[in-house]
Amino acid sequence: MLRRLVTVVAIAALLAGCDDTPDGGGTPSLAPTTASETTGEPSPEPTTQETTQTEVDKPSISIANAPIGGDVEEDGVEQCAEVNWLGKSPIPDGTTISLGPAELSRSGVFEFYQGACPGDVRACTDVKWHSGDFKPCYVGVRQVAHSTESVSLVIPVEATCETEADCQNLAKGFGDSQIDFDPIPLETPTTEPPTEPTETPSDG
Questions:
Q1: Phi, psi of 40 (to 5 degrees)
Q2: Lowest-pLDDT range, 29-33, 81-85, 149-153, 179-183?
């Protein structure tokens, strides 16, 4: 009776081992599956930065003596010039004209003096002219020496355009600066200062 009970226990243990192993001829037990819950929240944003598009350089042109013009107001040795663009008018869309530092075609006759212009006008310093937004600027000078020849105002510019054709047409058909400062005769001493009278010894 005891031998039969041991045999039954051994057979039960063998059958239990066959159920857990696929090689035992039984059906392998399946691993429990975990159901994923849907929360309805959006997936997190990617942490990597988006690639920015490469900026395309616009065509540009430099003009050493820009086509400018305007009236010159004179007040003795002081003069103030209104500076306007004489190129293609209006300035093409998408074009920016940046003014450089003003220069004079001849030195020694005039010097820059912004005080010759009214205080409420815009000086030609760091000025940018855009299409549809054009305002003249002003340059003042003061005569410091006698001369009979005019002195031209020269302003270099750098233009950035929407197209290459716009840049090439900016100064086409126009000359250089048309702003001249005309010197006036300066008074100079024509007689020498009187000399000290000399004493002559008296007779006796």
A1: 85, 0
A2: 29-33
- Decide if pLDDT at 174 tops 80: no
The residue assigned the tokens 């020269």 is 154
How many angstroms separate the CA atoms of 184 and 54, rounded?
56
pLDDT of 24 above 90: no
Span between the terminal Cα atoms of the chain, in Å? 187
Cβ atoms of 110 and 144 closer than 8 Å: yes
Cα-Cα-Cα-Cα dihedral sign, residues 145, 65, 85, 60: negative
Residue 105's closest CA among 179, 203, 163, 201? 179
Q: Which two tokens stand for residue 28?
A: 């392998």
Distances (CA, A) of 96 to 12, 133, 166, 199: 95, 10, 11, 76
Tell which phi-psi region holds residue 132, choosing left (phi > 0), alpha (psi between -120 and 50) or beta: left
User: Where are any strands of DSSP class E within 38-196?
Assistant: 60-63, 68-69, 72-75, 78-85, 96-99, 103-104, 110-112, 128-130, 137-143, 151-154, 157-160, 180-181
CA distance 102 to 155: 5
- Cα 106 from chain centroid (whole Å): 31
